[in-house]
């Protein structure tokens, strides 16, 4: 299990334990995290699972692939250098302690 935290735009945090191998999006949806819509179910086709990775942890994640990078141009909230699609981020113990900041809107 790996512990990750979601923080919404109001600064409220929710920390959860997640089984390794699931995605950050799946963890958010199955734990009722407000602010992750995930309309496409994880196929990198909707950009409604957009998160900002706390910059302190950016070097712990692999770079986005070409499909994710392209879809990040379609986020409803502004794309930033630390923007990611949470459905493309697989939980491993290397992510333990990561904080994901939620944009204030997804659509
Ligand atoms: S769930 Fe649709 S792009 Fe991530």
From TrEMBL:
Do the record's keywords include Iron?
yes
- Residue ranges of every copy of the 2Fe-2S ferredoxin-type domain listed in the record: 2-106
Q: Which domain of life is it from?
A: Bacteria
Annotated Gene3D superfamilies = 3.10.20.30
Q: Transferase: present as a keyword of the record?
A: no
Key words of the record = 2Fe-2S, Iron, Iron-sulfur, Metal-binding
Tell me its cofactors: [2Fe-2S] cluster
Q: What does the similarity note say?
A: Belongs to the adrenodoxin/putidaredoxin family.
- The name under which this protein is listed is 2Fe-2S iron-sulfur cluster-binding protein
Please tell me the species this chain comes from.
Variovorax ginsengisoli
């Amino acid at each position: 299990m790996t512990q990750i935290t979601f923080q919404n735009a109001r600064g409220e945090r929710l920390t959860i334990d997640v089984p390794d191998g699931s995605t950050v999006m799946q963890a958010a949806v199955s734990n009722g995290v407000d602010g992750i819509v995930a309309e496409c179910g994880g196929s990198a086709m909707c950009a409604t699972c957009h998160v900002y990775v706390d910059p302190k942890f950016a070097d712990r994640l692999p770079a986005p692939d070409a499909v994710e990078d392209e879809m990040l141009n379609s986020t409803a909230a502004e794309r930033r250098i630390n923007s990611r699609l949470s459905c493309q981020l697989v939980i491993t113990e290397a992510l333990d302690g990561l904080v994901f900041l939620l944009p204030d809107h997804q659509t």
